[in-house]
Design goal:
The protein is an alpha+beta fold. It has 10 helices and 10 strands. It has helices at 16-24, 57-69, 111-115, 118-130, 164-183, 243-253, 258-267, 269-274, 276-294, 297-300; strands at residues 30-33, 39-44, 47-53, 80-88, 91-99, 104-105, 211-213, 222-224, 230-232, 239-241. The longest helix is centred in the middle third of the chain and has 20 residues, at 164-183. It is globular and about 60 Å long. The termini are far apart.
């Protein structure tokens, strides 16, 4: 069915201004996004524009790379047609023009159908992790850029990593902050769900290989097409990271989509066991970054881990077994 017989737009050759105007005109249906954030507008039978703050050239480049390297007999990724930015008083607004994928998001499927997809989804993630990345690629999006996603804080990492050791140092500063906040009574030490000595553990990524990670796999970011194939959407948090980063981000989304992700994590249980220590450390990194980034700036200045003494012996409760 042609929805655009009177409002067609040549999205390949149209000016950037005409595409911006089309997005804001109200003539085209909004099919995704959120009310006060990014939007996805259907501008043709075969094309959408994802636009808003936080839609970046790095997202477009990473999505285009995965699209060109994925085995489409396993899963699909929307083709990227073009990307541009519009400057505003609040920063850059990105416009990502890409292929429209018809179908139903996994979020909207019957709970029994979702739970039956776990083996397929696990194979999709394993395939993604095996796609070769360019030689000497640093951590982050393909082609360079600031890491974004749940691990890094509300504003992203606010830096670009040149090497994996740069990322290692950044993450371990977050673990220092997490340890500080525990010392200051910001949360109950028993919330660590791990041996209490692990509060002093730090990540060591020097010998880790980087793989392509989606960074936000959840039901709303995948579409079941009429022919039964699945297309994975929203590559805004994707990039090259150690494999356990993607595993951690599936775990962190589990409570939001248990029908899909709990069976998926059962399929990945061997990896969850293998990377148990690293997963716990990433949980602490995310907690520190989330709380720290939302704290008032004057309060952040008080969290100086260099000035704090080690935990006094009476502070430690008795070791308890945790699940």
């Amino acid at each position: 069915m042609d929805l655009f017989n009177s409002t067609r737009i040549d999205y390949h050759n149209a000016s950037e201004k005409s595409l911006v105007d089309a997005c804001k005109s109200g003539q085209y249906p909004i099919i995704g996004g959120c009310e006060f954030g990014r939007h996805v507008v259907l501008i043709e039978n075969d094309a959408v524009i994802k636009y808003g703050y936080g839609v970046t050239a790095a997202e477009a480049a990473t999505q285009a790379y995965v699209h060109s390297h994925v085995d489409i007999s396993i899963f699909r990724v929307p083709k990227v047609y073009r990307f541009f930015e519009e400057e505003s008083d609040l920063g850059s607004i990105g416009y990502l023009v890409m292929e429209f994928i018809e179908g139903t998001t996994l979020d909207d499927l019957d709970i029994h159908i979702k739970s039956g997809l776990s083996t397929r989804i696990a194979s999709y993630l394993r395939h993604l992790w095996q796609i070769p990345i360019p030689a000497n690629t640093p951590p982050g999006p393909i082609g360079g850029g600031e890491p974004r996603g749940h691990i890094w804080s509300d504003e992203g990492a606010c830096t670009v990593f040149e090497t994996i050791l740069d990322m290692d140092n950044w993450l371990n500063v977050s673990l220092d902050i997490d340890e500080d906040m525990a010392r200051m009574g910001r949360w109950d030490i028993l919330d660590y769900r791990a041996p209490l000595e692990s509060i002093h553990h730090r990540l060591s990524l020097a010998n880790c290989s980087l793989v392509l990670c989606h960074g936000d796999f959840i039901g709303r970011n995948a579409i079941l097409q009429p022919d039964g194939t699945i297309c994975i959407l929203d590559w805004g948090c994707a990039g090259c990271y150690p494999l356990f980063f993607d595993l951690y981000l599936v775990i962190s989304n589990e409570s939001s989509d248990p029908a899909l992700l709990t069976p998926l994590l059962q399929q990945l249980s061997c990896l969850r066991t293998k990377f148990a220590k690293e997963l716990d450390l990433l949980r602490r990194v995310q907690r520190a970054n989330t709380v720290f980034s939302r704290a008032p700036k004057d309060e952040q200045k008080q969290w100086s881990f260099d000035s704090l003494e080690p935990f006094p012996e009476p502070y430690w409760p008795e070791r308890v077994d945790t699940v």
